[in-house]
Amino acid sequence: MHLTQVEFACDPFARNCYWANPWTNDINIDTKAKWHLDAEDFLTEIKDERFAIMLLDPPFSDRMSKDKYGTENLYASDSAKMLRIQKLAGNLVIPEGYIIKAGYNTNKPHPCFDLIEVRIVAMGNCRNDVLFSVWQKNNFTLEDFQ
Q: Any long-range contacts for 102-108 (C-beta under 8 Å, 24+ apart)?
């Protein structure tokens, strides 16, 4: 593997958010994301890229999935799939880079990351709060330095 540069950020669940532009993906073709692949397929496709920040904000409830995708929950109902996505995502982050994870838990997204911070965001009305956890890559493998 030969890496020429590090990109700023990647968002495999971007919807219409441009923060990680141009590395935006969303399975819904009606969004403004650059790619429209399943998140696992997207991360596999870009396996030679490296990022300082990886955003992990999948639809993590049935309501979100139905509102955004018109279907059952594509990711939260398949924990094995989310574990594979988180591992792929973590492998693309450079040493001392970050994963910013949104969801209903602060479970460790990848074995090479340490928890830095957790914030609770109140969504208002009768909606559940969302947890944002920030993870830093502090444990490295030889692949990280190739």
A: 102/55, 102/56, 102/57, 102/60, 102/130, 102/131, 102/132, 103/56, 103/57, 103/58, 103/60, 103/130, 103/131, 104/60, 104/61, 104/128, 104/130, 104/131, 105/131, 106/131, 106/133, 108/135
- Whether residue 25 contacts residue 36, with contact meaning beta carbons closer than 8 Å, is answered with yes
> pTM of whole model > 0.90?
no
Number of domains the chain is built from: 1
Of 68, 50, 67, nearest in space to 140 by CA: 50
Q: Please check whether residue 25 lies inside any domain of the structure.
A: yes
Read off the CATH number of the domain in which 72 is found: 3.40.50.150
Domain holding 30, by residue range, is: 7-145
pLDDT tens per residue across span 84-118: 999 999 999 999 999 999 988 999 999 999 999 99
**Is 1 contained in some domain?**
no
Taking 70 as the threshold, does the pLDDT of residue 77 lie above it?
Answer: no
> Residue 2 domain-assigned?
no
